[in-house]
Amino acid sequence: MRKSNIRRGAALGAAVALVAGMTAACGDSESGGGSESKLGKDDVLTITTFSDFGYDLLIDQWNADPDRPFTVKHTKVADWDPWKKTLTQELQAGHGLTDIVAVEGDAMPQFVSEGASDQFVDLSDSSLDDRWVDYAYQAAQTADGKQIGYPTDVGPEAFCYRADLFKKAGLPSDREEVKPIFATWDSYFEAGKKLVAALPDTKWYDASGSIAQAMLNQTEFPFQTAENEVNIDNPEIQNVWDTVTQYSSTLSPQVVQWGEDWTANFRNDGFATMPCPGWMFSNIKSSAPNVKGWDIVDAFPGGGGNWGGSFLAVPTQSEHPEEAKQFAAWLTDKDQELAVFEAAGNYPANVAAEEALAAENATDPYFNDAPTAAILASRAAAVEPGHPYKGDKYSDILGLFQTAIQRVDEGSSPEDSWKTFVQAVESLS
Amino acid sequence: MTTVQAARSGDAGAPASQAPPRLTRRQRLSHWDYRFAPYLYVLPFFAVFVLVGIYPMVYSGYLSFFSWPRFGPHHGDSVGFANYAHVLQDPVFRKAFWNTIAIFLLSSVPQVATATIVAAMLDTQLRGRTWWRMSVLLPFVVAPAATALIFGSLFADKTGLINELIHAVGLPKIGWHSDRFASWTAIASMVNYRWTGYNTLIILAAMQAVSREYYEAAAIDGASRVQQFFHITLPSISPTMLFVIITSTIGGLQIFTEPRLFDTNLQFQGGADYQYQTLTMYVFNTSNSSTDPYPRAAAATWIIVLIIITIALINFGLTRLVQRRSER
Amino acid sequence: MNRRPGFLVYGLLSAFVLGSAFPLYWSFVIGSVTKERAIHSPPPLYPGGHFLENARRVFDQIDFWSALANSIIISSVSAASVVFFSTLAGYAFAKLKFKGRNAGMAFVIATMAVPTQLALMPLLKEFSNLGLAGTRTAVVLPWLVTAFGVFFMRQYLVDAIPDELIEAARVDGCSQIRTFWTVAVPAARPAMAILALFTFMHTWTDFMWPLLILQGSDVQTLQTALDQLKIAPAGGISDIALLQAGTLLATIPLLVLFIATGRQLVAGIMQGAVKG
């Protein structure tokens, strides 16, 4: 094998030498990795995040500081899914990633699993052990105790709703009075039927996928057993599937989450409620800056739930692992996670930051002066740690599950779509 | 020695019976030059082509018989034909096959027909001939990626111009992304947009090569313009049609950019139900997956190569058959 | 057909040309309104006044100028390389007699039907192992030579150079290489220009391979930068005004090239057709 590699190398190498001669003058970006070097003040450390991590201001301030140890370049990718693809592929290729990468919580299990975790730098630091809430911190630990990520935020879910549309439909609209609607999933769907009957152009929720996600977050073993065996033939997942597909044609706008049509629905009263982890706040604001009537209720059907929450990790291909670790630790420290909450609404995973937020009792004028910090603190207390269990294939199967729901939204029968889903899950292994 | 050489290189035209001319050193050098120079001319091309064209094909073939450990740097153990079996049994691959064929037919048939009609209109005494020719070629400079993004916006399900127009005249909006046939149509229209003008010019060139005397003779016989078109023009340009069809087969079966950028599915699987995933998208996604990515992609590549060659040959055969018929 | 066309032909042709231009117009309409207006029903039909603003946002979002430079470099290297290798080989196949000529030409024609670029995708990891992933070198590698190039030059040169000319040069004692320079290259010049133009455009518009090999890299071409614009507007919200402004900006270079060389392009396509 070794030998054939050399031969292969030689063959391609010859072609490369030929081309390199032609393009060398243009200064191809250097490649390779592993070798460490110290960064100076104007040397660049790179970081990639997705959606909105709320880092713009923090990084601007960092780079404006004349005493900074190095300069930071921040790349933002819109959605997690394409970034996950790139991340996986570049990890496999062993090349191309930034010094720090953001990892969505659902995918963490596949990166802490054996084989994959070797691709990340061990960030363990005993002085940081009590810095973040336990369940988030432990989610980025391998079985043998290697820490591959620092938690940036957690996603305790509240519900966001359009008080103005509720009023129009004859539903209660006050933050306290709507609580019974969000007590159980049954009461939630019943209220939805009333609203869509009263307002024919408005659907009850933003997307089938987000309700599926919310219900999934309350299950125990949706896709894999505790031994990481794939098992999608269980009552928990069946219940989510049946419920969401049943209401697809009546309560859902049948659009793909994060897409163009989904975004447009924010502006034309396309829907009235959506599950709302803290990080969703900034999505709502930037999609519908001029819409008035959004509010947040401190309740969630069927208990609590955690949606998302991300990590910063350092791939071993980084040439500056020490600086990367230092910067990741800085970004997830108390003051920075507080600033992120201020900027984007992402609820801190940092314990000290959570305590500070609870004391300060912040409100948000966009959401009718809702006490966002208090609501999220209360929602965080309702989260059952460890729900749902995320095995090494959780994120992959979740993507396929969401796609299966999209098929039903687009007109497939639930039976056919489920069959395709089972096939797709089988070909994962 | 020199005699033999002179006799062998027949193109020198020296009759062997004549007394052998004594060659100067310079002439001898020239002999060597003429024998070996052609190889020196074609060798650079073949050397590079083998490296960047043939070698990757062969190496992909080799790779297709191995496994690939997750996040591993090199291939694993040999697995025989398991990767080929996996690809051929994969329902997604089969779906991608039919999608590709359908998109190809929807793009090539209307395209060649439209191009022929437009070419016939250009093959007249138009004013501003060059201007017209350049104008029909305009879409060719819009890159497929740009075409796909522009058409993606035109075909957006809720807010796109086309559905708004359909809605305005009172018809139900079409699910351009969700409906299988509609998505094929949308993607095929992008291909047609970019290539119709190009093929128009090729067919126009063939039409202009047809001798004008035929038309004059036919006109004297009282044949209408339409009759002239079917009995003179079409048979004369059929070799060019063959060329157009074969080149569009090779390109059309590799379609990637348009469906990829048209995709709204977050997994880039060509729609939630793989309704417009194409064969090339299949290879691309397989190369980016986590289970045996490269060997499976390599197996899929080779299967696709065989499919393309087969279809190109069928195409060639069919067109030849039609051509011979029409010549009779 | 040798007739003066009537109004019908002019009308139909005008409709065809307007249809060809419409998508570009639409792109400009969407690219010149605000992002809110762009997805508001009914859709805008006339351009708005926000194109420069959207263009500025494009420049904030992606490294447009570096992508433009990369596209120019990659396409130029590919065009120069294809023309060089194809002219040499095409001349030999067209005008020189040597053993294996027919077999070699048959091989070239056969490989035109084989999608050799497809086979590069499974070699992604090999490119990474060689440190090539994410480089311009990797993007241009598959476009250094094409079988089509050789075929095209051969078809052109077969008729463009009379055999007597080469024979005369030989009788004069010209070495092969001098014959090539003094006879073949001048005769091939128009075809070389057309082949360069085609190859340039082809490499410029290539999407699949650069998308795969440049994933996650700072190096992007104009086409892959558009993909980034589609999936990556910051803030996570899709923004078609931004996307269409970017699309139009990325199309401008080829439009300029088209205006400058359109006649040659038309001539090239039509000439290639008759020969092919």
Description of the structure:
The complex is a heterotrimer of chains A (429), B (328) and C (276). Chain A has 429 residues and is an alpha/beta fold. Chain A has helices at 2-23, 56-64, 80-93, 108-112, 134-139, 163-168, 185-198, 208-216, 235-246, 248-251, 260-267, 280-287, 321-331, 334-344, 351-360, 372-382, 394-409, 414-426; strands at 44-50, 71-77, 100-104, 150-151, 153-154, 157-162, 203-205, 271-277, 294-297, 310-313, 347-348. In chain A, the strands form 3 sheets. In chain A, strands 2-1-3-10-4 form a 5-stranded mixed β-sheet, sandwiched between helices. A 4-stranded mixed β-sheet of chain A has the order 7-8-6-9. In chain A, strands 5-11 form a two-stranded antiparallel sheet. The radius of gyration of chain A is 23 Å and the shape is globular. With 328 residues, chain B is mainly α. In chain B, helix 4 runs antiparallel to helix 10, helix 8 packs across helix 10 (225-252) and helix 10 packs antiparallel against helix 13. Chain B starts with a helix and ends with a helix. Chain C is built from 13 helices and no strands. The longest helix of chain C is centred in the C-terminal third of the chain and has 36 residues, at 240-275. With 276 residues, chain C is mainly α. Chain C is globular. Helix content of chain C is 72%, strand content 0%. The interface between A and B is large, with 48 and 36 residues.
| N- to C-terminal distance of chain C | 22 Å
The chain pair forming the largest interface, with residue counts per chain, is:
B-C, 107 and 98 residues
- As a percent range, the share of strand residues of chain C is under 5%
What is the arithmetic mean of pLDDT of chain B? 85
CATH architecture of the domain at 62-230 in chain C: Orthogonal Bundle
Class computed from helices, strands and strand pairing of chain B: mainly alpha
> Beta-sheet strand percentage of chain B?
under 5%
Oligomer status:
heterotrimer
Helix content of chain B: over 70%
Mean pLDDT across the residues of chain C is 87
- Distinct helical segment count of chain C: 13
Basic shape of chain B: flat
* SS class of chain C: mainly alpha
Topology summary:
The complex is a heterotrimer of chains A (429), B (328) and C (276).
Chain A: H1 2-23, E1 44-50, H2 56-64, E2 71-77, H3 80-93, E3 100-104, H4 108-112, H5 134-139, E4 150-151, E5 153-154, E6 157-162, H6 163-168, H7 185-198, E7 203-205, H8 208-216, H9 235-246, H10 248-251, H11 260-267, E8 271-277, H12 280-287, E9 294-297, E10 310-313, H13 321-331, H14 334-344, E11 347-348, H15 351-360, H16 372-382, H17 394-409, H18 414-426
Parallel strand pairs in A: 1-2, 1-3, 7-8
Antiparallel strand pairs in A: 3-10, 4-10, 5-11, 6-8, 6-9
Chain B: H1 2-8, H2 25-63, H3 82-89, H4 91-122, H5 129-137, H6 144-154, H7 161-168, H8 180-208, H9 212-220, H10 225-252, H11 257-262, H12 279-287, H13 293-327
Chain C: H1 7-31, H2 35-38, H3 51-61, H4 64-95, H5 101-112, H6 124-129, H7 136-140, H8 147-160, H9 163-171, H10 176-205, H11 208-213, H12 222-231, H13 240-275
Helix pairs in contact in C: 1-13, 3-13, 4-8, 4-10, 4-12, 5-8, 8-10, 10-13, 12-13
